[in-house]
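step 3/5: co-fold with 6-O-phosphono-beta-D-fructofuranose
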Amino acid sequence: MHPELIIAEDYQDLSRKAALRVAEQIKKKPTTVLGLATGKTPLGLYRELIRLHQEEGLDFSRVKTFNLDEYYGISPEDKRSFHYYMWENLFKHLNIPRGNIHLPDGGAQDIEEECRRYEEAIREAGGIDLQVLGIGSNGHIGFNEPGTEWGSLTHLAKLTPETIKDNEEEGGEGIPGFALTMGIKTIMRANRILLLAYGESKASIIARALKGPVDKSVPASILQLHPGLVVIVDKEAAKFLKGEGQVW
Ligand SMILES: O=P(O)(O)OC[C@H]1O[C@](O)(CO)[C@@H](O)[C@@H]1O
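step 4/5: write tokens
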């Protein structure tokens, strides 16, 4: 069974299409539990969700969110943190109660306990209904770098030099070398997954993830086995998906 693939015209179209999927989910179930990502990719989706909230009254008052990851060893106020990113780019513009927002605490003293607590919080919320995902240039999802065990739960991950470089290009100097991240198993437990990618730089990794073997060297390849996967890419990122009359 192939996942649903949507090829958007451009980044704005991708962001709109992704926002419509998220909005549909929230309208169908106002107590939706969303899994959220950071990075460049979901910024347009977040802008569009803010617009839907402000102009069309999309209600987030009962929505709960769980972010994929957070850097280790920095405080939530730190501008490099994903707490800061999420607050600035999404949460402060919505009517979502603070208590409904969850991110791993990268400053926790007892990391193992924090990872257990995060898994437990997701379970208590009833699990993730819809997980938004980007893909790293090395195929990572969350901060699950190549080689991560398929059975991993929330854990402390060491970032590869490639990931640190990519994220420094986006978020400035001094990105920590470790992060707390949902594991592959945590991600795969979500009911539905919305994988987003745009631009030519993601074309080859998206093709390897979706058409290549399911292999730990490309963590996102496990998504081929998820029954509720929806992929939205722009034309550039879809470059290697089309061929022989098939989508992939
Ligand atoms: O969207 P970008 O900036 O290319 O990042 C890709 C992925 O890498 C991360 O930033 C690392 O976790 C993810 O949050 C994101 O989905």
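step 5/5: annotate
Residues 37-41, 68-69, 134-136, 142-143, 170 surround 6-O-phosphono-beta-D-fructofuranose (CB under 6 Å).
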